[in-house]
Amino acid sequence: MFTGFLEHGIIRRAMDRGLIDTGIINIRNHAAGRHRVTDDRPFGGGDGMVMKPEPLASAIREAANHSPDALTVHLTPQGRVFDQDTARELTEIDHIVLICGRYEGIDERICETLVDRELSIGDYVLTGGEVAAMVVIDAVTRLLPGALGGDHSSDTDSFADQLLAHAQYTRPREFEGKAVPDLLLSGNHKEINRWRNESAMIRTLLKRPDLFTERSLTDEEIQILKKWQMEIGRIIKINGPNE
Ligand code: 6GU
Fold this sequence. Notes:
Blueprint: H1 2-6, H2 9-16, E1 39-40, E2 50-51, H3 53-66, E3 71-81, H4 84-90, E4 96-100, H5 108-114, E5 117-120, H6 130-141, E6 174-175, E7 178-179, H7 189-207, H8 209-212, H9 219-239
Parallel strand pairs: 3-4, 3-5
Antiparallel strand pairs: 1-2, 6-7
Helix pairs in contact: 3-5
The structure holds 6-chloroguanine (6GU).
């Protein structure tokens, strides 16, 4: 599952540049017996299978041999939801072991003894933690200095300042009757910056108003909000019912 992901695009380049290194441990190589069984029925009965503790412990210890100081992260829908702040936090950590569970979960004793942290990528259930691990690797890697083309490319990401990113346009100047906003062609970088800040704010307000309640406002943002407030007030005054 990981090869395609690791062999393309920004992740591949980050590997080639030595910004990250990855190793994959197949749990099956840590399972005993001719059948290399890694799962078993749950004690107490019920549906589904549980990942056995011995192969998992052995696999995690193999990972720890490569990086003894690693943070061990179990990917599970029960974990704290992974977000951009967590991605930034993880850029500070040199070695991370990502445990990808399958089936109904892993034996609880592994969670208690060998796991430092649990992460989920959202409130839905996947068939396994592998896709979640790739999400974490992708989001963290692109934040590492030098991972993206330009030096500061991730500074203007959505969530970089707890807002969504501003609208983007490229050539042609007119597409199917829709023109690019004139101001973006003006070359006036101060004005373009103001336009972008306002664009980021309106998109956040319309698409993700919850983000606004989790951050404080800059002076410029307060000015923009007051401008909108006046415009909205005028619309109500002109077109609303007379009291
Ligand atoms: Cl990390 N794992 C699984 N299996 N399902 C998930 C998840 C993780 N995050 C959301 N759903």
